[in-house]
Amino acid sequence: MDIIKTLFPCIPASRKIRLPASPGGNQGFLVEKQPHFTHQSTGGYLKEKQSWLSTHEASTQIVTAILTTTTEGPSLDSQIKDIVHQAGGWRESLAASILSAFEQALQKAYELGEALSPIIQNALTKVTEAGRKIKDFADWFKDEHPVWTGVILTVVALGILYLIWPYILSALGFGEIGIVEGEF
């Protein structure tokens, strides 16, 4: 245990990690680190209650936190980190769920004509400016360097052709060894 403490001083020894269930049906086991706990006062002592969030609950809480925040910075970051920790860490499914919930929330706000918070408006303005700058750069590059633009587009087109070439040959009736019998 001292080796682990030496190598990973940022992990407190008083917590436990909950490992996922194994495919054989076991519910996993606990190793020296507890998941996020909420403490509830019950008559003079603290009762520890485990709180795990599902992916949907975590994404809803994160989007709500982002959309209702009034300040940027460390407080929002720590709030999001706490929610992610309660959900078991970052996963692709959590990121996809957050993106989907964010899209739905922004779409509903747009449909209802609701005003977004100043922080969200500022973020959307920054994204719009970045997209405009990229488009302006691409237009400038195309006008100033037509030969390089042609070379880059040719390389991209050849790369795409390289990727789809086996499917084209298969559609024309050719297999790995040669012409497929009965195709012509």
Can you give a write-up of this model?
This protein has about 180 residues and is mainly α. It has 6 helices and 4 strands. The longest helix has 27 residues, at about 120-145.
Short description:
The protein is mainly alpha-helical and 184 residues long. It is built from 6 helices and 4 strands; from the N terminus they run αββββααααα. The strands form 2 sheets. It has a two-stranded antiparallel ribbon with strand order 1-2. A two-stranded antiparallel ribbon has the order 3-4.
Please describe the topology of this protein.
Layout: H1 2-7, E1 17-18, E2 30-31, E3 37-42, E4 45-50, H2 55-68, H3 74-86, H4 92-112, H5 118-144, H6 146-171
Antiparallel strand pairs: 1-2, 3-4
Q: Runs with pLDDT <50, length 5+?
A: 13-50
Straight-line N-to-C gap: 71 Å
Beta-strand level of the residues, as a percent range? 5-15%
C-alpha Rg (nearest Å): 27 Å
Strand order of the largest sheet: 1-2
What is the share of helical residues? 55-70%
Number of helices: 6
Largest sheet: 2 strands, antiparallel
Task: Name the average pLDDT.
Answer: 77
DSSP strand tally: 4
Envelope shape = extended
What is the H/E string? Answer: HEEEEHHHHH
Q: Structural class of the secondary elements?
A: mainly alpha
